[in-house]
User: Fold these one by one.
Assistant:
Number 1:
Amino acid sequence: MKASHRKSRVRDAVIRRLLLISVIGVVLFVLLMRTNTIVDLFTKYSFESDERFEEIHNNYSLVLKKNLNLPKQNELSISLENRNQMPPRNLDLYPKLAKNHIVIVLYVHNRPQYLQVVVDSLSRVVGISETLLIVSHDGYFKEMNKIVESIKFCQVKQIFAPYSPHVFPNTFPGISPYDCKDKDGSLKMKCEGTPDQYGNHRSPKIVSLKHHWWWMMNTVWDGLEETRGHFGHILFIEEDHFIYPNAYRNLQVLTELKPKKCPHCYAANLAPSDVKSRGEKWESLIAERMGNVGYTFNRTVWRMIHRKAREFCSFDDYNWDITMWATVYPSFGGPVYTLRAPRTSAIHFGKCGLHQGQGENAACIDNGALNFEVEEIDKVQNVKRNWGVHVYEHQAGYQAGFRGWGGWGDIRDREMCLDFAKMYGALDIVEV
């Protein structure tokens, strides 16, 4: 009888110990999952080894999205979101991507003549057939879509921002009849919207710049089947960037040399940060602040950017690039350098505003013509692996205390921006 009682006590003690260990294990797992290092490892190895992770990720994202406060979608918005899930075109012509390819993302607005120029330049890029081109549209525009559908030189996938102001003509994030419109009027009548630091209310066409860039970044890195598992570099260009034939081959060398020649560099660039410069033409690589023409980085850098969602979404400036330079990059704790060649491989050719250059008679490509020529040296890979690196240590930029140029004061824009950061269930966004 005593022996039986003793065995029962031992068994109960073992059960309690196992339960305690299980609870401690769960707590530790949760704590570890909240750290960035473990999150990155979890993400990486889940993509590479767990076949069910894709299904889990999709289901989690769907559940999470229902809890977000995104605008109620209209028919066009839903249609665009469905189109984003379509596979790339030209898979019959280019069934496989090259190993260690650099994905190219071209984000566009509504300037067909500009887009045709950059597409023509991409068609002559050496190595373009080896990779995937993703074209991200700020809404849906028939002429822009037609140009992209004509591309035959590589795999190409189109994505359309389903929450673009251009998709919502009568409600937020487009123009709502109840929106505040001027400084004085908003004080006298009840209206929707909060002004920026200068007292001005939102302009949907202007805020679409920042919304599109942020939505695109989150979608490309975390939302697309084609790129969620991509751990290499991704190149980002715009519709007014002319790309030289040697750009892709040069970029392959730069991204290969970056960890060796410039381990403190976050990115590689096709062009100088000064858009008017064509490069120094030295026999040396250049390390300088990250430019906004042809910039290229990997998932590690994206995770760093993504963790700064609150800073990005709350800074009162409608420009995504100025927001990055003025508040996100400085929060990294040191200078943010990019590596580039001494000769440019891309040129910013647009000289008019974002929403100009849309009609045949309104084209604005450097006063109607491209006034630059591609030299023979720009047609071949011209980055030398034995070059040293010249570092521009003291560069002009936005100083501490810069508050932004405004245009991004409406709380609705800031909240939607944060929702974009959480839209795909990225694991490093916690209580942003």
Note: The two ends are 61 Å apart (CA to CA).
Number 2:
Amino acid sequence: MVSTSSAEAASLRPGIKAPAQETLLTPRFYTTDFDAVAQMDLSGHEDEIESVLAELRADYNRYHFVRNAEFDQCWDSIDGETRQAFIDFLERSCTSEFSGFLLFKELSRKLKGRNPVLSEAFALLARDEARHAGFLNKAMADFGLSLDLGYLTKNRTYTFFPSEWVIYTVYLSEKIGYWRYILIYRHLEQHPEHRIYPLFKYFESWCQDENRHGDFFKVLLRSQPKLWNTLGGRLWARFFLLTVFVTHTLTVLERATFYESIGLDPDQFNKDVIRNTNETARRAFPCILNTDHPTFFLRLNTCAIANQHLAEIASTQRPAVIKLIQKLPWMAVIIWQMLCLYLIPSVNAEQSRETVR
């Protein structure tokens, strides 16, 4: 674990934290095929789109993200590994929300005049994500650091995803975000002695934003039969479920100190989030993963252990070639475990879906 002092030293200028080094586990910034999104045929789903839009327009959390007097104190009591783990959590969450803001804002801008309905929807999504990112960045400032979001915008690497991939991944990102926030909120409601910082009190309403965003992407997904009513759609659904669950497992277990600091068992929390997200995906995806398979979580944990070995190797001062050679066996472990997980027979969600909600 990186010490607090060394983490705070890694700054662009006083009080501004240098962005975390980009890895497979850091939130990524995305761009997509804007023309393909503009040309999406939403016929037959107008009522659902309008229903989701009405929810977004209502802006239920307009006055929710207002800091109260509880924040106005010194937070030096949160120190050591707990402090650094919490800063890491805030940074990752802020970067993820800001990434969503940039993508949704650009989609809204590119679709303006071409697809007014989607342009408005993405503008409303961007509004929520910007609000979340700003609130999290203010929380980081309580610990003497914040992110330069303008710097991130200009200097972060942008990854191109086809529009279909964006729909799959953002749907899952929003739904897994919902379950992460609501499970933490419920846990701390039952165990307030572990609520080390007032941010957690905001999670109940916050996660409803995540839920509404996911519902919007669910309508987009169901409006495109090729995403769920084809063999390719079923294979891609399984792939994105798996990659999101593997990434979540690696991230949670890598940052176990944070979850332990708020009284959560990281392993159990990871399982609960994945099981709930997988079940929620039944409403949108053509198939879901069999999380009850006896080897499912064992293989995910094996991936996490291999990733810890990779991180240890990366932190050494050995020559790059030597580190690559040492990494290869552990990379092979992750690839093999993911292949085995992918080949576990999936659960047909279409057969169990009575209505698309």
Note: Strands lie at 11-13, 16-17, 29-31, 158-160, 287-288, 347-348.
Number 3:
Amino acid sequence: MEPNDKIVIIGVTGYIGAWIAKQLTDMGYNHIVGTYRNEAKAQQLQTLLPNVNFYKANIGETENWHEVLREAKWIFNQGSGFSPNDKTFKDRGRTKQKGIRLLLQLAVDSGSVKKFVHTTAESTIAYGNEDPSKTTFTEDDWTNEDRGGLFDHNMVSKTMEERAAWSFIQSHENISNIIMTTIHPTHVMGPSFVPWHNDMIYAMLRGDRAMADSQLYGVDVRDAAAMNITLMKSTAANGKRHFASAFKSTYSTLLNLIKEQFTDEQIKTVLGDAARIIPGNDAADLLGHCHSTSYYQDMVPRMLNRVVYKTNHPEAYAYEYTEPNTTVIQAMEKMLKDKNNYTKFQT
């Protein structure tokens, strides 16, 4: 990428997207375009990054995309197609498939786009596993979106979306030979660049509920953004899938760290009544009667700390990751700071 190249960040107001825009700006790139859905978020981010150009554009629709993609060379995709009418996991997947195919066709039609870095998730790799003995996963693995009983719609819809993207890229429809690389973040944590948050700490630990302790792989949001940029610049990454994962921890470890560093009042401000965590061994024993289900076969090995994520492409990790305690503490501090502003940015 050259400093004057047109770079498009789809979903620029998102958790990772905003940090990509910030880091590219700091690196001297001066022709950045970001797409958004939420007007209030875009206006706020514009005050923080005044040199970024903003366009309202929805994946799955055609409005504004020709202008967004005109003369664009590099696309960072943080978005997905969405429809409020979707009823099932498969419905959501079909909406995402339609959206990504239309987006890639528009990129081809532009005649200028060279490379497309698509952020998906670990959920397209390591779930729906029907082999209880399999506990190590690499980028060669795929989630089985047809496995009955999958409990998270992202495991289905994001997998369907990614398969559709690769199918397009590798087909005769890709007449301009756009290159694609995918990045698969694990649990994304760390301080949001903008005054709204999507932090996995909040998603995992908030609320007065019981939950099974489990291992988790995590990555700082700033590192996930940096890896997007690294993959865009790397010809070695072309046509490959990449885990984005920095550390391995557990829910209880994260919650204990938070309790050591923050007061009860601060924790309640961010998380409400924090979740009550059941030891993984105890939870696994309680689930013994449903050992043939996809939930058991996906989650119990994680409760017992047996799952390993191993990247095929260690050369893509071209920088040092943020240390996990720093990630967690800075995430909590930022959520405390932004708590009073968060609700006004909700759609």
Note: The chain has a mean pLDDT of 93.
Number 4:
Amino acid sequence: MQKFRWISAITALIFAVTALPAHAAVLSAAADTTSKQVGSLTPTVVNRLEKAVQELVGTKTPFQFDDVTDMGKTWIVEGELEDGTATFQTEYNKEKNRVDSTTVRYKISSLDKALDAPLKAKVLNSAKAFDRKRSMQFEAFWRVKSPYQSNKPSNYWVFWGAGEKTSSLYVDVDRGNNITINADYSLKQVDPVLLNRAANTLQRFSGQRITVQHASRFKDEAKGLSYWLFEDANESSEVNIDATTAKVLAVSTYGADWNDDADFKKSFARPKYTASEALKLVKPKVQLLFNINLSGYHVEIQGNQYTFSKKQKGTASIIAKVNKKGFFYDFSLRPADGKVQ
């Protein structure tokens, strides 16, 4: 199970671009434009940018373009809504002649105006229910669409939590407004029982003492996923623990020892172990980590991934990954119903 941290390419770019000199005339979204008025941008490009912004803010919301920055392969075009509730940024790909991403950055005071009542209620209720002991407060929210990025969501709302530790709530527009939440915690805020379980699991798995330095909690309401993530200082060793049952769901240490995709394909073109060899090696680890006996399980091998499952209905599966040296460095539990409750 992988850690849940969504930061799109445009998010990182936003902070980089704000430090660059901008050199463009102010442009009304409704006005006729020429390439001279907006530097290198043609009316066709501007029209595409306008449509991208309108898709997120609505066709009845007036806005204007303010700054254009030439980034070489892309133009970064920034602007604001005329009512003062938000600023926005678009990224236009020159080579592919398309808008790669659009981000509208709203002031938290405009929550009522930007969101319809049902979505606002859903967001606030989810934030309240995430942790009854720790109220989640927001200091800003964005509307983002990056249709060509590989990670999901790519069309979403994101609400940024306020306070010392990072937290964020995502609303996936393409998946029926499914809500996912991620929040960092100081170790003092975490149940000591969970911390001890995480540290002991890492020690049993690695054979050495590993100190837990980072803690975060994740929830995907639609999938029924809800777990804690504990990591060491380098974020190279981690444990996932179910937030409800406190059972270990996954554990891993850094094990990637291949150079690139080509090296990976070459290294795992043939299985490192046969099914019987893998069962023999993995069985004691699985018993130790998940208290599951792999007797009667069969094995499926794909690349460096070994899936241990049983035909008997209602049994969980185990996924283990091996590196070039033949070390199983990653184990995760897949519940029988596909969900973690």
Note: The first helix runs from residue 9 to 17.
